[in-house]
Each structure stands twice: as C-alpha cells, then as structure tokens.
Design brief:
116 residues, mainly beta, 6-stranded mixed β-sheet, 0% helix, 47% strand
Length: 116
C-alpha cells in the first residue's frame, strides 16, 4: 500500500542543477519525516538530507550548501533541489519515510548522472 515514486533525475553537466521529486502514497504524509538517500556505483547507500514534519532540515556534509530538501504536504511530495552539481553526486537517489512502520518501503529511485 505504501508507494514512493521518485522522478526528476537525468544527465547534467558539472555545475548544473536538478530538482528531484518523490510522491508518497499510503501514509499520512504530513506527519512523517522524510529523507533522501543516494547510492553511487560501488558505494554504500548514504543519507543525503532529512526534513521533519515541521520543516526542519539536515544535510550530509558533502551536499551542505548545495542541496535543499523541501516538502509540499498538499501534494504529498518531498523535493530535493540540487545545485552546483559535481561528478561525485552521480548516484541513484531514493526517498524514504523516516518512520519505523515505513522504512522498509523503497521506490525504484531516480538516476542522477553528472558528467561533462
């Protein structure tokens, strides 16, 4: 019943920008903290950003100052605005619900490739 659908990925040049979206269903979206993770080839999945139900945010040091997580509760959607992209940002990006009841649910992710 829980579904997470990521979108917005693509191929961009270094220094470019992308905005990722994650549409959630099957949960009461507004009361749940949301997260973005990414997994690069050959690397462990890493937490990128967190946003609480109240809108407070935290970021991995590697993306701080470049990425912004936000949410639109009316649309049941969490976003990740990515600016000043670097090749090391290349990864599959996933959203997740930071609630023990729902952490096991993952979408298919969206591929971000940063290359010249």
């Amino acid at each position: 019943q829980v579904q997470l659908v990521e979108s917005g990925g693509g191929l961009v040049q270094p220094g470019g920008s992308l905005r990722l979206s994650c549409a959630a269903s099957g949960i009461i979206f507004s009361i749940n903290p949301m997260t973005w993770y990414r997994q690069a080839p050959g690397k462990q999945r890493e937490l990128v950003a967190v946003i609480t139900s109240g809108g407070s945010t935290n970021y991995a040091d590697s993306v701080k100052g470049r990425f912004t997580i936000s949410r639109d509760n009316a649309k049941n959607t969490v976003y990740l605005q990515m600016n000043s992209l670097k090749p090391e940002d290349t990864a599959v990006y996933y959203c997740n619900v930071n609630n023990i009841a729902y952490r096991a649910y993952w979408g298919q992710g969206t591929q971000v490739a940063v290359s010249s």
